[in-house]
Design goal:
The chain is mainly α and 296 residues long. Helices cover 81% and strands 0% of the residues. The chain has one domain.
Amino acid sequence: MLKALYGSAILILVTILWGSSFVFIKFSVENISGFSYTFYRSLISIASLTPPIVVKIFRKKIDLKSIRYGFITGVSYMLGLLLQGIGTAYTTPSISAFITGLNTVHVHIYTALIEKTYSSLLFLSLVLAITGLYMVTKPSGGLGFGELMVFLGSIAWAAEIVLISRYARRGIKRIEFLYGLLLPSLSLIPYVLFIEKTLNLSYTTWLYLSYLAIACTLAATALQVIGQRYVGEATAAIIYILEPIFALIFSVIIYGEKTELLAVLGGITMVIASAIAILDEILKQKNLDKSLSVSK
């Protein structure tokens, strides 16, 4: 029970950090392309992690397995980041947040069909979460290029959630995993430097990217690995769907976006959905602990 609550609390913090990212993504892609945004955000993160990685190499304490797991997960991460960045340039932060939140549906489909550990409580939490998400973001208009890109990105984010749940339980080293996670983004070097030739970024763009790299990539992903060690991917995905609530709050404060009573009610609905998913996780862990004690 305590593990489920601990993991859930950490994942809520992750969601707050991610929610703050949408406004800064929007600011960033107003000045540079989605490709440059993805590359430079990842580059800053890699540069920050390189010193401790070098120290680990010299001390011969580097865990290559964790780097490999991170690299595999990083392919999904890079695609999610890239497609979200490209799409957000053509839509609003709230619509981007809504479509990104659909990764929850993808994860639940995976849990039901592949893991076969789905429950009625999880299904109820999913219905409430998507309903609340729609009420908060109120997406309007057809499926344009931006919306399509963000939707494809939501599939990549779902894959990342599933992979992190799988690897977090294998005792990975967080620094090595994070480093491997970011390496696939270096494949964008030729396009960004030689085709787009995006070399001179403004001071404010560097500030936006630095916040995204340090807070929303390094800190959030490190916490994500810890939290998903104690919480299943379906429950984690429901908690992550709170992201648009925090995205809306930051968008109201920083971007000037207006909100209504419907959004508040939607936010309450999403909080209830997350509480139900966490309750389901607690019940699962209680049953597991009980079965383990009986077997002893």
